[in-house]
């Protein structure tokens, strides 16, 4: 059985491309934003890792991560944050919120896949 990834990305094409690439190694579920991701999680479903963009409508990556970390149920899920920003303060803030990895766009899908394998085995 493959490990499950919840991929949270508001750009449909990027979510599709990342999901298609990662689905060779993992079961991938996509969500358009943090609100959709929380809705999916509220169904009692549990991913092995979450990959989320930072800047998204409705519920962005930082607020989504903060909500996860405040939850007794989802607090321990590893979260990899992907950002188009180049702000070191943003990276520091997201790691303080509990992100286990911060990856800047553009990034190598192979590097992301390898990092996810290291995180969840």
Number of strands: 5
Q: What integer value in Å does the Rg equal?
A: 13 Å
The sequence of SSEs as H and E is EHEHEHEHEH
* Helix share bin: 40-55%
Identify the CATH architecture: 3-Layer(aba) Sandwich
Largest sheet: 5 strands, parallel
What is the 3D form?
globular
CATH class: Alpha Beta
Whole-number tally of structural domains: 1
- Main-sheet strand order equals 2-1-3-4-5
Number of helices: 5
Regions with little confidence, pLDDT below 50 for 5+ residues = none
Write the CATH homologous superfamily.
Response regulator
How is the CATH topology named? Rossmann fold
Mean pLDDT: 92
Percent strand equals 15-25%
Helix and strand arrangement:
Layout: E1 4-8, H1 12-22, E2 27-31, H2 34-41, E3 49-53, H3 61-70, E4 79-83, H4 88-97, E5 101-104, H5 109-120
Parallel strand pairs: 1-2, 1-3, 3-4, 4-5
Helix pairs in contact: 2-3
Written overview of the protein:
This protein is an alpha/beta fold. The chain has one domain (4-120): Response regulator (Rossmann fold, 3-Layer(aba) Sandwich), CATH 3.40.50. It has helices at 12-22, 34-41, 61-70, 88-97, 109-120; strands at 4-8, 27-31, 49-53, 79-83, 101-104. It has a five-stranded parallel sheet with strand order 2-1-3-4-5, with helices on both faces. Helix 3 (61-70) links the parallel strand 3 and strand 4 (79-83). Helix 2 (34-41) packs parallel to helix 3 (61-70). It is globular and about 35 Å long. The mean pLDDT is 92.
Short description, anyone?
The protein is α/β, with parallel strands linked by helices. Helix content is 42%, strand content 20%.
